[in-house]
Write a structure and sequence with these properties.
Layout (H helix, E strand, L loop, with lengths): L3 E4 L4 E6 L4 H10 L6 E5 L5 H12 L3 E5 L2 E5 L10 H4 L7 H10 L1 E5 L12 H9 L3 E5 L2 E5 L7 E3 L5 H11 L5 E5 L5 H12 L3 E3 L5 E5 L8 E3 L4 H14 E7 L7 H10 L4 E2 L3 E4 L5 E2 L2 E3 L11 H8 L2 E8 L10 H6 L3 E5 L3 E6 L7 E3 L3 H13 L3 E5 L2 H4 L5 H6 L4 E4 L1
Parallel strand pairs: 2-14, 3-13, 9-10, 17-19, 18-19, 22-23
Antiparallel strand pairs: 1-23, 1-24, 3-5, 4-5, 6-8, 7-8, 10-12, 11-12, 14-16, 15-16, 19-21, 20-21
This protein binds uridine-diphosphate-N-acetylglucosamine.
The site of uridine-diphosphate-N-acetylglucosamine has 22 residues, from helix 1, helix 5 and helix 6.
Protein backbone atom coordinates (compact mmCIF):
# COMPACT_ATOMS: atom_id res chain seq x y z
CA UNK A 1 0.00 0.00 0.00
CA UNK A 2 1.46 3.38 -1.02
CA UNK A 3 2.13 6.14 1.49
CA UNK A 4 2.92 9.83 1.10
CA UNK A 5 5.72 11.30 3.20
CA UNK A 6 5.89 15.07 3.69
CA UNK A 7 8.35 17.29 5.47
CA UNK A 8 6.20 20.29 6.34
CA UNK A 9 6.77 24.00 6.46
CA UNK A 10 8.23 24.67 3.00
CA UNK A 11 6.97 27.77 1.17
CA UNK A 12 5.80 27.05 -2.36
CA UNK A 13 6.68 29.09 -5.46
CA UNK A 14 5.87 28.69 -9.16
CA UNK A 15 2.85 27.48 -11.11
CA UNK A 16 0.51 24.55 -10.62
CA UNK A 17 -1.51 23.62 -13.72
CA UNK A 18 -4.93 22.23 -12.93
CA UNK A 19 -6.10 19.05 -14.70
CA UNK A 20 -9.49 18.17 -16.16
CA UNK A 21 -12.36 17.72 -13.73
CA UNK A 22 -12.65 14.26 -12.19
CA UNK A 23 -16.41 14.58 -11.73
CA UNK A 24 -16.86 15.53 -15.40
CA UNK A 25 -14.51 12.88 -16.77
CA UNK A 26 -16.17 10.09 -14.78
CA UNK A 27 -19.51 11.00 -16.40
CA UNK A 28 -18.21 11.80 -19.90
CA UNK A 29 -16.53 8.39 -20.31
CA UNK A 30 -19.72 6.40 -19.60
CA UNK A 31 -21.63 8.93 -21.78
CA UNK A 32 -19.35 8.04 -24.72
CA UNK A 33 -20.98 4.64 -25.06
CA UNK A 34 -24.25 6.28 -26.14
CA UNK A 35 -22.51 7.36 -29.34
CA UNK A 36 -22.63 5.21 -32.45
CA UNK A 37 -19.22 6.41 -33.64
CA UNK A 38 -15.81 7.25 -32.18
CA UNK A 39 -15.57 10.26 -29.87
CA UNK A 40 -12.47 11.95 -28.49
CA UNK A 41 -12.32 13.50 -25.03
CA UNK A 42 -9.44 15.88 -24.28
CA UNK A 43 -7.99 17.05 -20.95
CA UNK A 44 -8.87 13.81 -19.17
CA UNK A 45 -7.11 13.66 -15.78
CA UNK A 46 -4.68 10.86 -14.99
CA UNK A 47 -6.39 9.47 -11.94
CA UNK A 48 -7.18 5.94 -10.87
CA UNK A 49 -10.96 6.52 -11.22
CA UNK A 50 -10.37 6.99 -14.96
CA UNK A 51 -8.24 3.79 -14.99
CA UNK A 52 -11.21 1.94 -13.48
CA UNK A 53 -13.61 3.35 -16.12
CA UNK A 54 -11.18 2.29 -18.84
CA UNK A 55 -11.30 -1.25 -17.42
CA UNK A 56 -15.11 -1.17 -17.47
CA UNK A 57 -15.18 0.02 -21.09
CA UNK A 58 -12.81 -2.78 -22.09
CA UNK A 59 -15.04 -5.26 -20.33
CA UNK A 60 -18.00 -3.95 -22.39
CA UNK A 61 -15.84 -4.47 -25.52
CA UNK A 62 -15.60 -0.76 -26.38
CA UNK A 63 -12.38 0.29 -28.09
CA UNK A 64 -10.48 2.76 -26.00
CA UNK A 65 -7.24 4.48 -26.80
CA UNK A 66 -5.76 6.63 -24.05
CA UNK A 67 -2.76 8.75 -24.89
CA UNK A 68 -1.51 11.32 -22.44
CA UNK A 69 -4.68 13.27 -21.59
CA UNK A 70 -6.74 12.37 -24.62
CA UNK A 71 -9.11 9.42 -24.73
CA UNK A 72 -10.65 8.04 -27.92
CA UNK A 73 -13.64 5.79 -27.38
CA UNK A 74 -15.36 3.76 -30.08
CA UNK A 75 -18.52 2.09 -28.79
CA UNK A 76 -19.93 0.98 -32.14
CA UNK A 77 -19.37 -2.70 -31.26
CA UNK A 78 -20.06 -2.50 -27.55
CA UNK A 79 -21.70 -5.49 -25.81
CA UNK A 80 -24.20 -5.14 -23.00
CA UNK A 81 -22.39 -7.50 -20.63
CA UNK A 82 -22.57 -7.40 -16.85
CA UNK A 83 -19.79 -5.31 -15.34
CA UNK A 84 -18.02 -7.46 -12.69
CA UNK A 85 -18.88 -6.47 -9.13
CA UNK A 86 -15.27 -5.70 -8.15
CA UNK A 87 -15.11 -3.16 -11.02
CA UNK A 88 -18.46 -1.50 -10.21
CA UNK A 89 -17.36 -1.19 -6.60
CA UNK A 90 -14.09 0.54 -7.42
CA UNK A 91 -15.78 3.90 -7.91
CA UNK A 92 -19.02 5.67 -7.19
CA UNK A 93 -19.40 6.95 -10.73
CA UNK A 94 -19.84 3.44 -12.13
CA UNK A 95 -23.53 4.28 -11.61
CA UNK A 96 -23.38 6.36 -14.82
CA UNK A 97 -23.30 3.07 -16.75
CA UNK A 98 -26.86 2.52 -15.53
CA UNK A 99 -28.07 5.59 -17.45
CA UNK A 100 -25.89 5.14 -20.50
CA UNK A 101 -26.44 1.38 -20.99
CA UNK A 102 -30.17 1.83 -20.35
CA UNK A 103 -30.22 4.70 -22.87
CA UNK A 104 -28.38 2.64 -25.46
CA UNK A 105 -29.81 -0.89 -24.99
CA UNK A 106 -32.97 -0.20 -22.93
CA UNK A 107 -31.59 -2.73 -20.49
CA UNK A 108 -28.81 -2.85 -17.94
CA UNK A 109 -27.83 -5.35 -15.29
CA UNK A 110 -25.10 -4.42 -12.86
CA UNK A 111 -23.93 -4.22 -9.26
CA UNK A 112 -24.35 -1.18 -7.03
CA UNK A 113 -21.42 1.27 -7.10
CA UNK A 114 -18.69 1.80 -4.52
CA UNK A 115 -16.75 4.99 -3.67
CA UNK A 116 -15.91 7.01 -0.57
CA UNK A 117 -17.67 6.22 2.72
CA UNK A 118 -18.73 9.82 3.32
CA UNK A 119 -22.40 9.04 3.84
CA UNK A 120 -25.20 6.69 3.01
CA UNK A 121 -25.13 7.61 -0.69
CA UNK A 122 -28.48 6.27 -1.90
CA UNK A 123 -29.38 6.27 -5.62
CA UNK A 124 -33.16 6.21 -5.20
CA UNK A 125 -33.57 9.44 -7.21
CA UNK A 126 -31.64 7.98 -10.16
CA UNK A 127 -33.88 4.91 -10.09
CA UNK A 128 -37.12 6.91 -9.73
CA UNK A 129 -36.02 8.90 -12.77
CA UNK A 130 -35.47 5.72 -14.82
CA UNK A 131 -38.89 4.46 -13.74
CA UNK A 132 -40.51 7.72 -14.89
CA UNK A 133 -38.94 7.09 -18.30
CA UNK A 134 -40.72 3.73 -18.41
CA UNK A 135 -38.14 1.34 -16.94
CA UNK A 136 -38.88 -1.43 -14.47
CA UNK A 137 -36.36 -2.14 -11.76
CA UNK A 138 -35.59 -5.37 -9.98
CA UNK A 139 -33.12 -5.42 -7.09
CA UNK A 140 -31.60 -8.52 -5.58
CA UNK A 141 -29.15 -7.70 -2.82
CA UNK A 142 -26.36 -5.76 -4.45
CA UNK A 143 -27.53 -6.58 -7.97
CA UNK A 144 -29.89 -4.47 -10.02
CA UNK A 145 -31.72 -5.03 -13.28
CA UNK A 146 -33.24 -2.06 -15.11
CA UNK A 147 -35.13 -2.56 -18.35
CA UNK A 148 -37.71 -0.87 -20.54
CA UNK A 149 -39.68 -1.93 -23.60
CA UNK A 150 -39.41 1.66 -24.68
CA UNK A 151 -38.00 4.78 -22.99
CA UNK A 152 -40.50 7.62 -23.17
CA UNK A 153 -39.77 11.23 -22.22
CA UNK A 154 -41.38 12.35 -18.98
CA UNK A 155 -41.54 15.14 -16.38
CA UNK A 156 -39.22 14.33 -13.48
CA UNK A 157 -38.99 16.35 -10.27
CA UNK A 158 -35.92 15.63 -8.12
CA UNK A 159 -36.55 15.84 -4.35
CA UNK A 160 -32.89 16.86 -3.96
CA UNK A 161 -30.83 18.50 -6.74
CA UNK A 162 -28.56 15.45 -7.02
CA UNK A 163 -25.58 15.71 -9.38
CA UNK A 164 -25.54 11.98 -10.08
CA UNK A 165 -29.29 11.67 -10.62
CA UNK A 166 -29.39 14.71 -12.94
CA UNK A 167 -26.61 13.32 -15.15
CA UNK A 168 -27.88 9.74 -15.07
CA UNK A 169 -31.39 10.78 -16.10
CA UNK A 170 -29.92 12.92 -18.91
CA UNK A 171 -27.97 9.88 -20.14
CA UNK A 172 -31.04 7.65 -20.09
CA UNK A 173 -33.30 10.29 -21.70
CA UNK A 174 -31.06 11.42 -24.53
CA UNK A 175 -32.37 8.78 -26.95
CA UNK A 176 -35.83 8.38 -25.39
CA UNK A 177 -38.98 9.08 -27.36
CA UNK A 178 -40.25 12.65 -26.85
CA UNK A 179 -39.27 15.26 -24.28
CA UNK A 180 -37.97 14.79 -20.76
CA UNK A 181 -37.99 17.67 -18.29
CA UNK A 182 -35.90 17.47 -15.12
CA UNK A 183 -37.05 19.95 -12.48
CA UNK A 184 -34.95 20.89 -9.44
CA UNK A 185 -31.96 19.64 -11.43
CA UNK A 186 -28.46 20.08 -10.02
CA UNK A 187 -26.61 23.04 -11.58
CA UNK A 188 -22.95 22.05 -11.16
CA UNK A 189 -20.54 22.98 -14.01
CA UNK A 190 -19.88 19.26 -14.58
CA UNK A 191 -23.52 18.86 -15.65
CA UNK A 192 -23.10 21.59 -18.26
CA UNK A 193 -19.91 19.86 -19.46
CA UNK A 194 -21.76 16.54 -19.92
CA UNK A 195 -24.74 18.22 -21.67
CA UNK A 196 -22.38 20.05 -24.05
CA UNK A 197 -20.68 16.75 -24.90
CA UNK A 198 -24.00 15.05 -25.64
CA UNK A 199 -25.16 18.06 -27.69
CA UNK A 200 -21.92 17.91 -29.73
CA UNK A 201 -22.91 14.32 -30.56
CA UNK A 202 -26.30 15.57 -31.79
CA UNK A 203 -28.41 15.41 -28.63
CA UNK A 204 -30.97 18.11 -27.92
CA UNK A 205 -30.49 19.28 -24.32
CA UNK A 206 -31.32 22.77 -23.10
CA UNK A 207 -31.17 24.39 -19.69
CA UNK A 208 -28.14 22.54 -18.27
CA UNK A 209 -26.67 24.77 -15.55
CA UNK A 210 -30.16 25.87 -14.47
CA UNK A 211 -32.72 24.05 -12.33
CA UNK A 212 -34.82 23.00 -15.33
CA UNK A 213 -33.26 20.79 -18.00
CA UNK A 214 -35.16 19.77 -21.13
CA UNK A 215 -34.06 16.83 -23.24
CA UNK A 216 -35.68 16.10 -26.59
CA UNK A 217 -34.88 12.54 -27.58
CA UNK A 218 -32.87 11.86 -30.75
CA UNK A 219 -32.34 8.54 -32.50
CA UNK A 220 -28.62 8.64 -33.31
CA UNK A 221 -25.53 10.26 -31.89
CA UNK A 222 -22.42 10.97 -33.96
CA UNK A 223 -18.72 11.22 -33.15
CA UNK A 224 -17.29 14.47 -31.78
CA UNK A 225 -14.34 16.11 -30.04
CA UNK A 226 -14.87 17.41 -26.52
CA UNK A 227 -12.79 18.87 -23.71
CA UNK A 228 -13.12 18.26 -19.96
CA UNK A 229 -13.47 21.50 -17.96
CA UNK A 230 -10.80 22.33 -15.34
CA UNK A 231 -11.28 20.57 -12.02
CA UNK A 232 -12.74 23.16 -9.64
CA UNK A 233 -12.15 20.96 -6.59
CA UNK A 234 -8.50 20.36 -7.49
CA UNK A 235 -8.15 24.11 -8.17
CA UNK A 236 -9.72 24.91 -4.81
CA UNK A 237 -7.50 22.43 -2.97
CA UNK A 238 -4.34 24.05 -4.39
CA UNK A 239 -5.72 27.53 -3.75
CA UNK A 240 -6.10 26.62 -0.08
CA UNK A 241 -2.51 25.33 -0.10
CA UNK A 242 -1.41 28.60 -1.75
CA UNK A 243 -3.15 30.63 0.97
CA UNK A 244 -1.18 28.69 3.59
CA UNK A 245 2.22 28.38 1.92
CA UNK A 246 2.27 30.41 -1.31
CA UNK A 247 5.10 32.77 -2.15
CA UNK A 248 4.23 33.87 -5.66
CA UNK A 249 2.32 30.64 -6.26
CA UNK A 250 -0.04 30.59 -9.26
CA UNK A 251 -2.92 28.16 -9.66
CA UNK A 252 -3.26 28.06 -13.43
CA UNK A 253 -5.68 26.79 -16.11
CA UNK A 254 -8.77 27.29 -13.97
CA UNK A 255 -12.18 28.93 -14.31
CA UNK A 256 -12.17 31.31 -11.29
CA UNK A 257 -15.98 31.70 -11.50
CA UNK A 258 -16.39 28.01 -10.70
CA UNK A 259 -14.71 28.50 -7.29
CA UNK A 260 -16.25 31.85 -6.43
CA UNK A 261 -17.70 30.55 -3.15
CA UNK A 262 -14.23 29.49 -1.96
CA UNK A 263 -12.55 32.66 -3.24
CA UNK A 264 -15.11 34.77 -1.41
CA UNK A 265 -14.54 32.82 1.86
CA UNK A 266 -10.77 33.12 1.55
CA UNK A 267 -11.12 36.89 0.95
CA UNK A 268 -13.32 37.15 4.04
CA UNK A 269 -10.57 35.39 6.02
CA UNK A 270 -8.07 37.97 4.75
CA UNK A 271 -6.32 36.13 1.89
CA UNK A 272 -4.91 38.44 -0.80
CA UNK A 273 -5.25 37.08 -4.31
CA UNK A 274 -4.59 38.28 -7.81
CA UNK A 275 -7.43 36.87 -9.90
CA UNK A 276 -6.88 36.59 -13.65
CA UNK A 277 -9.09 35.16 -16.37
CA UNK A 278 -7.72 31.63 -15.96
CA UNK A 279 -5.44 31.81 -12.93
CA UNK A 280 -5.17 32.98 -9.32
CA UNK A 281 -1.85 34.01 -7.77
CA UNK A 282 -1.07 34.31 -4.09
CA UNK A 283 2.00 36.45 -3.51
CA UNK A 284 2.43 36.06 0.24
CA UNK A 285 0.92 34.28 3.21
CA UNK A 286 -0.82 36.60 5.70
CA UNK A 287 -2.59 36.51 9.08
CA UNK A 288 -6.11 35.16 8.71
CA UNK A 289 -9.44 35.53 10.53
CA UNK A 290 -11.87 32.75 11.44
CA UNK A 291 -14.85 32.28 9.10
CA UNK A 292 -18.15 30.38 9.02
CA UNK A 293 -18.79 27.99 6.13
CA UNK A 294 -21.91 26.02 5.17
CA UNK A 295 -21.73 23.45 2.38
CA UNK A 296 -24.45 23.78 -0.23
CA UNK A 297 -25.24 22.68 -3.76
CA UNK A 298 -23.61 24.74 -6.55
CA UNK A 299 -23.07 27.70 -6.63
CA UNK A 300 -22.84 27.40 -2.82
CA UNK A 301 -19.70 26.26 -1.01
CA UNK A 302 -18.86 22.74 -2.31
CA UNK A 303 -18.91 19.89 0.17
CA UNK A 304 -15.85 18.49 -1.65
CA UNK A 305 -13.78 21.51 -0.46
CA UNK A 306 -15.01 21.38 3.12
CA UNK A 307 -12.42 18.85 4.29
CA UNK A 308 -9.49 20.52 2.45
CA UNK A 309 -10.50 23.83 4.08
CA UNK A 310 -10.12 22.46 7.63
CA UNK A 311 -6.28 22.75 7.77
CA UNK A 312 -6.67 26.38 6.62
CA UNK A 313 -9.16 27.08 9.42
CA UNK A 314 -6.72 25.68 12.00
CA UNK A 315 -4.45 28.57 10.96
CA UNK A 316 -7.10 31.31 11.26
CA UNK A 317 -7.31 33.40 14.46
CA UNK A 318 -10.60 32.83 16.30
CA UNK A 319 -13.32 30.20 16.14
CA UNK A 320 -14.36 28.99 12.69
CA UNK A 321 -17.42 26.87 12.03
CA UNK A 322 -18.19 24.39 9.29
CA UNK A 323 -21.73 23.11 8.75
CA UNK A 324 -21.91 20.10 6.43
CA UNK A 325 -25.36 19.84 4.86
CA UNK A 326 -24.80 17.36 2.01
CA UNK A 327 -23.15 14.23 3.49
CA UNK A 328 -23.70 12.59 6.90
CA UNK A 329 -20.18 11.33 7.46
CA UNK A 330 -17.78 13.91 6.12
CA UNK A 331 -15.56 14.65 9.11
CA UNK A 332 -13.55 11.41 9.06
CA UNK A 333 -10.33 13.41 8.72
CA UNK A 334 -10.89 15.33 11.96
CA UNK A 335 -9.57 12.78 14.53
CA UNK A 336 -6.15 12.71 12.81
CA UNK A 337 -6.18 16.52 12.45
CA UNK A 338 -6.77 16.79 16.22
CA UNK A 339 -3.95 14.28 16.78
CA UNK A 340 -1.65 16.65 14.88
CA UNK A 341 -2.53 19.48 17.28
CA UNK A 342 -5.75 21.08 16.02
CA UNK A 343 -8.48 22.22 18.40
CA UNK A 344 -11.70 20.95 16.79
CA UNK A 345 -15.05 19.90 18.23
CA UNK A 346 -17.68 18.05 16.18
CA UNK A 347 -21.39 18.04 17.04
CA UNK A 348 -23.74 15.43 15.53
CA UNK A 349 -21.30 14.71 12.69
CA UNK A 350 -22.66 17.84 10.97
CA UNK A 351 -21.04 20.85 12.64
CA UNK A 352 -17.34 21.36 13.39
CA UNK A 353 -15.92 24.29 15.33
CA UNK A 354 -12.24 24.95 14.85
CA UNK A 355 -10.31 27.16 17.28
CA UNK A 356 -7.15 28.70 15.88
CA UNK A 357 -4.58 29.21 15.33
CA UNK A 358 -2.79 26.07 16.42
CA UNK A 359 0.58 24.58 15.51
CA UNK A 360 0.34 21.22 13.80
CA UNK A 361 2.96 18.51 14.36
CA UNK A 362 3.90 15.92 11.75
CA UNK A 363 2.97 12.30 12.52
CA UNK A 364 1.55 9.11 11.02
CA UNK A 365 -1.99 9.66 9.79
CA UNK A 366 -4.42 8.07 7.35
CA UNK A 367 -6.42 9.08 4.26
CA UNK A 368 -9.94 7.95 5.19
CA UNK A 369 -11.51 9.10 1.92
CA UNK A 370 -10.58 11.17 -1.15
CA UNK A 371 -11.06 14.73 0.12
CA UNK A 372 -10.26 13.73 3.71
CA UNK A 373 -6.95 12.44 2.34
CA UNK A 374 -6.32 15.78 0.62
CA UNK A 375 -7.05 17.47 3.94
CA UNK A 376 -4.41 15.35 5.74
CA UNK A 377 -1.95 16.12 2.97
CA UNK A 378 -2.46 19.87 3.51
CA UNK A 379 -2.01 19.35 7.27
CA UNK A 380 1.29 17.59 6.47
CA UNK A 381 2.44 20.47 4.25
CA UNK A 382 1.95 23.03 7.05
CA UNK A 383 2.99 20.85 10.02
CA UNK A 384 6.35 20.89 11.77
CA UNK A 385 8.36 17.77 11.02
CA UNK A 386 7.47 14.66 9.06
CA UNK A 387 3.94 13.47 8.26
CA UNK A 388 3.32 10.05 6.74
CA UNK A 389 -0.12 9.39 5.24
CA UNK A 390 -1.23 5.84 4.54
CA UNK A 391 -4.15 4.61 2.40
CA UNK A 392 -3.22 7.21 -0.20
CA UNK A 393 -4.98 5.23 -2.93
CA UNK A 394 -8.00 7.35 -1.88
CA UNK A 395 -6.11 10.54 -2.81
CA UNK A 396 -4.81 9.11 -6.10
CA UNK A 397 -8.39 8.27 -7.16
CA UNK A 398 -9.07 11.97 -7.65
CA UNK A 399 -5.91 14.11 -7.76
CA UNK A 400 -3.85 13.94 -10.96
CA UNK A 401 -0.11 13.71 -10.26
CA UNK A 402 -0.44 15.43 -6.90
CA UNK A 403 3.00 14.54 -5.56
CA UNK A 404 4.85 15.80 -8.68
CA UNK A 405 2.72 18.95 -8.89
CA UNK A 406 3.63 19.88 -5.31
CA UNK A 407 7.29 18.83 -5.65
CA UNK A 408 7.63 21.11 -8.71
CA UNK A 409 6.72 24.16 -6.62
CA UNK A 410 9.08 23.30 -3.77
CA UNK A 411 7.25 20.90 -1.45
CA UNK A 412 9.26 18.20 0.25
CA UNK A 413 6.90 15.35 -0.57
CA UNK A 414 7.28 11.83 -1.92
CA UNK A 415 5.23 8.74 -2.68
CA UNK A 416 6.71 5.73 -0.88
C1 LIG B 1 -21.35 14.15 -6.63
C2 LIG B 1 -19.85 14.19 -6.64
C3 LIG B 1 -19.30 14.29 -5.24
C4 LIG B 1 -19.96 15.46 -4.48
C5 LIG B 1 -21.48 15.41 -4.59
C6 LIG B 1 -22.14 16.64 -4.01
C7 LIG B 1 -19.40 12.83 -8.61
C8 LIG B 1 -18.86 11.57 -9.16
N1 LIG B 1 -19.37 12.97 -7.28
O1 LIG B 1 -21.73 12.95 -5.95
O2 LIG B 1 -17.91 14.48 -5.33
O3 LIG B 1 -19.60 15.40 -3.13
O4 LIG B 1 -21.87 15.31 -5.97
O5 LIG B 1 -21.66 17.79 -4.63
O6 LIG B 1 -19.77 13.73 -9.34
N2 LIG B 1 -29.15 11.68 -2.71
C9 LIG B 1 -30.28 10.95 -2.41
N3 LIG B 1 -30.74 10.11 -3.36
C10 LIG B 1 -30.12 9.95 -4.57
C11 LIG B 1 -28.98 10.70 -4.85
C12 LIG B 1 -28.51 11.57 -3.89
O7 LIG B 1 -30.84 11.06 -1.34
O8 LIG B 1 -30.61 9.15 -5.39
C13 LIG B 1 -28.62 12.62 -1.68
C14 LIG B 1 -27.25 12.17 -1.18
O9 LIG B 1 -27.37 11.27 -0.10
C15 LIG B 1 -26.63 13.50 -0.76
C16 LIG B 1 -27.22 14.51 -1.75
O10 LIG B 1 -28.37 13.87 -2.31
O11 LIG B 1 -27.04 13.83 0.53
C17 LIG B 1 -26.31 14.93 -2.87
O12 LIG B 1 -25.85 13.79 -3.57
P1 LIG B 1 -25.45 13.84 -5.11
O13 LIG B 1 -25.47 15.25 -5.61
O14 LIG B 1 -26.23 12.82 -5.82
O15 LIG B 1 -23.95 13.34 -5.03
P2 LIG B 1 -23.20 12.39 -6.05
O16 LIG B 1 -23.70 12.64 -7.43
O17 LIG B 1 -23.17 10.99 -5.54
Amino acid sequence: MSKIRIEGGKLLTGTINISGAKNSAVALIPAAILCDEETTILNVPNISDVDSLEEILRCLKAKINRESNSVKIDSSKIENTIIPEELSKKLRASYYFMGSLLGKFKKVEMYFPGGCSIGERPIDLHLKGFEKLGATITEEGNYIKIEAKELIGSKIYLDIPSVGATINIMLAAVKAKGQTTIKNAAQEPEIVNVATYLNSMGANITGAGTSIIKIKGVSTLRGCLHEVIPDRIEAGTYLIIAALLGKNLTINKIIPNHIESLVSKLKEAGVNMEIGTDYITIKNVGEYRAVKVKTLVYPGFPTDLQQPLIPFLTQCNGTSKITETIWENRFLNIPDTIKMGANIKVVDNRVATIKGKTRLRGMEVSATDLRGGASMLICGLIAEGITTIDNVNHILRGYDNIVEKLKNVGANIELI
